[in-house]
């Protein structure tokens, strides 16, 4: 494992993810700008469902004095994060489990950011997550999530279909231009013998992953309103990729 180029695996992940959101770095920069404008320079920052540490690495550069915690359940991506992103504390937790936020410690946090991960949750899980974050983010603090959220096939079926079509075209254009896709990245990881045990554990943990339906933008807005956030809105959108923002 000592011979693994962890930084390159993170960089390769970033390139792969940019195929699904070509302006990904600009979205991260906007995310941090919103954090500063709403909550000020954060002292305690959480990268939620952090994966290999993409947000954490950028947050550490943007907010060098912040105490940053990355949280994820994926054992493989956490190992990449711990080896590729210095100065950040990475913790293992299942966001669907009661009490997962114990890994954050006792103090309230200033900002929580996430990207391209929470769409895996069931809508009911999202509601519980919003309630947990409402308890953990200080008044005036902020939550941001850059992710796919359907406009709503029941609420606005025509516009929802158009947004999905636009999103799929972005993905198709990116991959036609040679950007590695999700499956290819994971296939490459599976070819590295040093990762075999970690990937087996990852498969075991996510074997029961299921959800009743895709999370919509309406689900997200309502979940955070009901949880007690003062303001919720979308501050950036490309097709059905939204930069959702909630002020505590």
Topology:
Elements: H1 6-18, H2 24-39, E1 44-48, H3 54-62, E2 67-72, H4 75-84, E3 89-92, E4 109-115, H5 123-136, E5 137-148, H6 157-176, H7 182-190, H8 196-205, H9 217-226, E6 231-238, E7 241-247
Helix pairs in contact: 1-4, 5-9
Summarize the structure.
The chain has helices at residues 6-18, 24-39, 54-62, 75-84, 123-136, 157-176, 182-190, 196-205, 217-226; strands at 44-48, 67-72, 89-92, 109-115, 137-148, 231-238, 241-247. It has 248 residues and is of the alpha/beta class.
Task: Give an overview of the whole structure.
- The protein is an alpha/beta fold.
- Helices cover 45% and strands 20% of the residues.
- It has a seven-stranded mixed beta sheet, with helices on both faces.
- A hairpin with a 2-residue loop joins β6 and β7 (241-247).
- α1 crosses α4 and α5 (123-136) runs parallel beside α9 (217-226).
- The longest helix has 20 residues, at 157-176.
- The chain is globular.
- The relative contact order is 0.17.
